[in-house]
Amino acid sequence: xxxxxxxxxxxxxTPIHKxxxxxxxxxxxxxxxxxxxxxxxxxxxxxxxxxxxxKDALDKGxxxxxxxxxxQTNHGRLTASVAVRYGMKCIIIMDGKKPxxxxxxxxxxxxxxxxxxxxxxxxxxxxxxxxxxxxYEKKGHKVYEIPVGGSSxxxxxxxxxxxxxxxxxxxxxxxxxxxxxxxxGSAGTYGGLVLGxxxxxxxxxxxxxxxxxxxxxxxxxxxxxxxNSADEFDMNIKINEEDLWIEKGFVGEGYNIPDNKTREIIYxxxxxxxxxxxxxxxxxxxxxxxxxxxxxxxxPDSNILFIHTGGTPGIYIxxxxxxxxxxxx
Length: 329
Ligand SMILES: Cc1ncc(COP(=O)(O)O)c(C=O)c1O
What we know:
The structure is a single chain. The protein is an alpha/beta fold. The chain folds into two domains: 16-43 and 153-328, Rossmann fold; 46-150, 3-Layer(aba) Sandwich (Rossmann fold), CATH 3.40.50. It has helices at residues 20-26, 46-59, 74-85, 105-111, 125-138, 157-172, 188-199, 216-232, 260-273, 282-294, 318-328; strands at 16-18, 29-34, 64-69, 89-95, 115-119, 143-145, 179-184, 205-210, 245-247, 303-308. The strands form two sheets. It has a six-stranded mixed β-sheet with strand order 1-2-10-7-8-9, sandwiched between helices. Strands 5-4-3-6 form a four-stranded parallel β-sheet, with helices on both faces. Pyridoxal-5'-phosphate is lined by residues 44-45, 74-75, 149, 151, 183-190, 278, 281-282, 309-311.
């Protein structure tokens, strides 16, 4: 495989530890990898992708990181955290209208001086993008574009790398994993884990829990994306349909829409383990994992690693917080 350089934008390795109380209740050994502890701006999975993307941006002489996402993008927040540390500008183009009230990630983006642009109905994302890039280039900046979620063929290497880390950590712990479970959005996290698993010939299953409604076509596109990365970096592997285990049944009401079941899981994990999940990604992924255990699709007594991909500022997003306060206060 090709050697690809990166810059560590966070604290790695992240810890792995057992969730003792929940494991007992579910007759399984559930471990958690704390990618919520990557260290900056409340942490999360995106720093692993940014390790590669930042290096590429600097190599290309860029001084501005431009990325995309929903108004509460965690990826945007972490891109902003990288930009300030490396003396760069961060631009986030967000889908949808500017929310009337700032909450959650939006406040953190502003604290870190990110420039935010909202795609209003009259404009297309591409029109805004072209105008924004032109505006910054006229001022002498060189813009590096990062796709939604940092999920480019290069960004996916962040979670390919995480497999190496997990393999070493579990070896040291004398732990043989049967399953890895994570949230599945723009596919960079899940895709990287699947590529790593296949490349290193690990025996465990990698389960992706959808956080938004995905069609079979989109999943097929994501599989192509994984294979494009494998080809680009000479991994000499091919991801086939049977390599993927994707669960679609835990999206709830839709992407980032508050729902009771996800909040119930967030409260459960907080009350049993002192770990805070988020309402958009990890709450749903954890819910999916527990249901698979109850349904015995994850076998009893098995060793499971749940990836806590971060997203905790999501608790403080106005729409989620209103429900949380009503339920807990
Ligand atoms: C906290 C969190 N978890 C999981 C994901 C999903 O990761 P991916 O987009 O790589 O599929 C995201 C993506 O935004 C995220 O912010």
